[in-house]
Automatic annotation (TrEMBL):
<feature type="coiled-coil region">
    <location>
        <begin position="321"/>
        <end position="348"/>
    </location>
</feature>
<dbReference type="InterPro" id="IPR045957">
    <property type="entry name" value="DUF6377"/>
</dbReference>
<keyword id="KW-0812">Transmembrane</keyword>
<dbReference type="Pfam" id="PF19904">
    <property type="entry name" value="DUF6377"/>
</dbReference>
<keyword id="KW-0472">Membrane</keyword>
<feature type="domain" description="DUF6377">
    <location>
        <begin position="221"/>
        <end position="468"/>
    </location>
</feature>
<dbReference type="InterPro" id="IPR011990">
    <property type="entry name" value="TPR-like_helical_dom_sf"/>
</dbReference>
<keyword id="KW-1133">Transmembrane helix</keyword>
<protein>
    <submittedName>
        <fullName>DUF6377 domain-containing protein</fullName>
    </submittedName>
</protein>
<keyword id="KW-0175">Coiled coil</keyword>
<feature type="transmembrane region" description="Helical">
    <location>
        <begin position="295"/>
        <end position="315"/>
    </location>
</feature>
Length: 504
């Protein structure tokens, strides 16, 4: 919800924009006044400055029409001043109202405002005496408000739960809130009831349920683009206490940004009291993670170095083993023929690069065999899954994505290894072709298919069967490629011999 807040803010702005557009369509001043009042309510916990603007518009219209809406406007201002942290101005505004002459609807509004305002002032009072004074005033107004409501409204249950929590009867408060009829809970009410439940569970010391209902309340606030709230801030602090620093820091930043956007000054001040603590913890955690990443990086480098040494050692041992096998092969006639061929090849090798070539041929042959084995393994597992009718296993094993991916990695590794040994191969190869027939890799490739075929020929693999097996093409396709490229050569008869003589 925090990450998607812009979606909900856009929805809020669109709703406000539609209300603004309806002002010009108002049929009379009473309808226009009601639209101003709706805009005031939309902006009330979203942007207090804009909400105050529409209170002024309501006041101007009421004066022009000589409507007696002064008490309602005073309560609107007081409510806004309370949200903005201007508690003295809010109290002064309420003290101008004679509650005895208010109708029941406005009296409910007045008592609710007084109870909420004095409760907030009590929370920010600097002395115990003042705190008790304002707390008693808040309780008195709440008690006066309760008889004005019946059990067919959710506010009745919230007021009843508030009375019980004031007497520290938290479990009874939970029971009352959980008895609210579901049809009475919708929209912002969902968040308000959830917040009351979180407060009750806080009194019971049940942190898990307190966090659950704070999260539920915060979700409603974010979804309705309510910027003046406390649930997400409290949730951030509880997450900090449980060690979830990253989420606590994220939620606290969102709470601060929303409070500033709404111009809810005292809410922002309240948030700043815990902000340095969580910010410091977040920075310490980030530093620790950075240190851990550095340690892991050094360990990884060490492991890579160790692997490189092991590969070098194994390569040397393999080379020694190969020599030993060549010497032992003199004991039978079949291996004598192979030794004779190897002797002839070794006679032609004139530099260390030729030794590298012989090694890479061996490497390619082994990798090709590995791909074949993997393919055979996949097929055998596929047959096994079919015979046992294991559908889920069959679907997983039947996929060729693993083999395809490994093959692509293998070809890329081959291209990189080959070009490291013959960095000028493409230029030297194209020098053997007619100017208009030269071949270059496509963007993103190291070697094209044609270049890869003749790279294998340069390594001494001239058998089309082996080339087809390595590249996973048909024998006909390899013949076609070789013939097509040979026809582009300056000297067709000596072309492949010249490719085999390209130097690094």
């Amino acid at each position: 919800m925090v990450d998607n807040r812009k979606v909900y803010d856009n929805r809020k702005e669109q709703k406000i924009e539609r209300l603004k557009e309806s002002i010009s369509l108002a049929g009379n001043d009473s309808v226009r006044y009601e639209i101003y009042n709706k805009l005031f309510r939309e902006y009330f916990n979203y942007q207090t400055d804009s909400a105050l603007h529409y209170v002024f518009l309501k006041e101007n219209l009421a004066r022009a029409k000589h409507w007696n809406y002064e008490d309602e406007l005073r309560m609107n201002r007081s409510e806004l001043f309370s949200t903005m942290g201007m508690y003295k101005e809010a109290i002064d505004m309420l003290e101008e109202i004679d509650s005895k002459r208010l109708p029941t609807r406005q009296l409910k509004y007045y008592y609710a405002m007084c109870s909420s305002l004095y409760g907030l002032v009590a929370g920010y009072s600097s002395t115990l005496k003042e705190r008790e004074k304002y707390y008693q005033a808040s309780t008195s107004y709440r008690d006066s408000l309760l008889p004005l409501y019946t059990p067919d409204t959710e506010f009745y249950y919230r007021l009843k739960a508030g009375q019980l929590m004031a007497r520290k009867s938290y479990q009874e408060a939970v029971d009352v809130l959980q008895r609210v009829p579901p049809e009475l809970i919708e929209g912002h009410t969902v968040g308000l009831v959830a917040f009351d439940l979180s407060t009750a569970y806080e009194g019971l010391g049940n942190v898990e349920l307190e966090m659950y209902y704070l999260a539920k309340s915060a979700i409603v606030d974010l979804k309705l683009s309510i910027k003046e709230y406390i649930a997400l801030h409290k949730l951030a602090y509880l997450l900090y206490q449980k060690g979830d620093i990253e989420r606590a820091y994220k939620y606290l930043n969102r709470s601060m940004a929303d409070a500033v956007f709404c111009n809810a000054r005292f809410r922002a001040i309240s948030i700043t009291q815990s902000y340095p603590i969580i910010d410091r913890a977040y920075k310490v955690k980030s530093a620790q993670e950075q240190h851990l990443r550095q340690i892991l990086m050094f360990i990884s480098l060490g492991v890579m170095l160790l692997l490189a040494v092991m590969v070098l050692y194994i390569s040397r041992q393999m080379h020694k083993l190969k020599i030993a096998r060549l010497e032992l092969s003199n004991m039978n006639e079949q291996l004598q023929h192979v030794n004779k061929q190897l002797y002839q090849v070794n006679q032609e090798l004139s530099s260390a690069n030729m030794i590298k070539q012989e090694y890479i041929v061996h490497y390619l042959d082994q990798c090709t065999m590995y791909l074949d084995k993997m393919e055979n393994y996949r097929r055998s597992l596929e047959n096994l899954s079919i015979s046992k009718d294991l559908k889920n296993l069959f679907k997983a094993i039947k996929s060729e994505s693993f083999i395809t991916e490994e093959r692509e990695k293998f070809y890329k590794s081959f291209d990189e290894t080959f070009l490291s040994l013959f960095p000028h191969f493409v230029e030297s190869f194209n020098a053997l072709l007619r100017d208009e027939e030269r071949i270059y890799p496509h963007p993103g490739e190291l070697l094209s298919t044609e270049l890869r075929i003749f790279a294998l020929i340069r390594l001494g693999i001239t058998d089309s069967n082996k080339i087809a097996r390595f590249l996973r093409y048909s024998l006909t396709t390899i013949y076609n490629y070789r013939s097509k490229v040979r026809n582009k050569a300056k000297d067709k008869t000596q072309f492949e011999i010249q490719v085999g003589q390209i130097q690094s």
